[in-house]
Design goal:
- This protein is an alpha/beta fold and 130 residues long.
- It is 19% helix and 24% strand.
- It contains three helices and eight strands; from the N terminus they run E-E-E-E-H-E-E-H-E-E-H.
- Strand 6, helix 2 and strand 7 form a beta-alpha-beta unit.
- The protein is globular and about 50 Å long.
Length: 130
């Protein structure tokens, strides 16, 4: 995926294709508690993302085999408890960026998926080209 790029549109100079990587979740209230995505098999998770392109996070979750109800928020959203009315659901997964804003008002059912952006080799070569 490209930040802001639509499939089929020509690539412009300074646009790079990338994907998210990461597959180990941790519990927001108890970060030592880690889980692979398979632990949520058969569950429907609420997925929260307030990043530049939340659909990228949701797509990554689906690639990991998770079934999610997507909750996209604007980038840098200042979360309140009212933003998460389903906070008592079975499980919620969110980005690290969002989790730090919610830690004071969520329960033990919130999981965080740290992700990294990985450039595809062609984009990486353009990025490092002098």
């Amino acid at each position: 995926m490209i930040n802001g790029w639509l499939p089929g549109a020509p690539l412009q100079r300074r646009e790079f294709t990338m994907q998210l990587t990461g597959n180990l979740l941790y519990n927001l209230r108890n970060p030592e508690l880690k889980a692979q995505p398979e632990i949520f098999a058969g569950q429907v998770l609420h997925a929260v993302a307030g990043i530049g392109h939340p659909e990228r996070f949701f797509t990554h979750l689906k690639k990991l085999g998770l079934r999610v109800i997507e909750h996209a928020f604007p980038d840098h959203h200042p979360y309140t408890p009212q933003d998460l009315p389903w906070h008592e659901s079975e499980a919620i997964v969110m980005t690290e960026k969002d989790a730090v804003k919610c830690v004071d008002f969520v329960g033990d059912n919130v999981w965080v998926l740290p992700v990294q952006a990985q450039l595809d080799p062609a984009s990486a070569a353009l990025f490092w080209k002098k």
